[in-house]
């Protein structure tokens, strides 16, 4: 029978592995988006910055998993990366790709925020204090990105509408 401590460790490790896979999914979603953006340079710049942050988050998760004597799940990483890539492809055929990407990215950032908040609770309850600063840094980056998307959505929407009015959906795409 597992002890409370063993159960918390198992849950924490599973949460870290899942967060690692989610960050891989984020990369597979953002990378194709940034490559297609033409009319929204501030969005492309912010996505590039967040891609760098996401790579740092993955490195921090790798460090935490290694410290717990384990590693990420290649199967989960690949599976979620594929779904992220499929989402990016799906949005690329939409006339309002930039707007749909903004919606999806906003929702995804909040999913990641919830995941890091949950991991912080498990770290605190399980006594994994070495993880707290790293998880808080990742949480702050996700919160900053979500806030940036929230703040920029009016600009993106207005620019999309203006480009659409000038030349139809193909001109407004990205």
TrEMBL record:
InterPro entries: DUF892_YciF-like, Ferritin-like, Ferritin-like_SF, YciF. It comes from the Bacteria. PANTHER family: PROTEIN YCIF (PTHR30565:SF9). This is Uncharacterized protein. It comes from Croceibacterium mercuriale.
């Amino acid at each position: 029978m597992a002890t409370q401590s063993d159960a918390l460790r198992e849950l924490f490790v599973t949460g870290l592995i899942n967060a690692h896979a989610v960050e891989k999914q984020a990369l597979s979603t953002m990378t194709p988006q940034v490559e297609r953006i033409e009319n929204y340079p501030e969005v492309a710049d912010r996505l590039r910055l967040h891609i760098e942050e996401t790579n740092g988050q993955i490195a921090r998760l790798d460090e935490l998993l290694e410290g717990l004597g384990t590693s990420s799940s290649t199967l989960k990483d690949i599976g979620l990366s594929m779904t992220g890539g499929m989402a990016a492809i799906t949005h690329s055929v939409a006339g309002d790709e930039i707007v749909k990407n903004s919606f999806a990215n906003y929702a995804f950032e909040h999913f990641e925020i919830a995941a890091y908040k949950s991991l912080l609770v498990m770290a605190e309850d399980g006594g994994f204090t070495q993880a707290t600063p790293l998880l808080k840094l990742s949480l702050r980056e996700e919160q900053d990105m979500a806030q940036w998307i929230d703040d920029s959505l009016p600009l993106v929407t207005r620019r999309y509408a203006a480009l659409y009015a000038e030349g139809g959906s193909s001109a407004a795409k990205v």
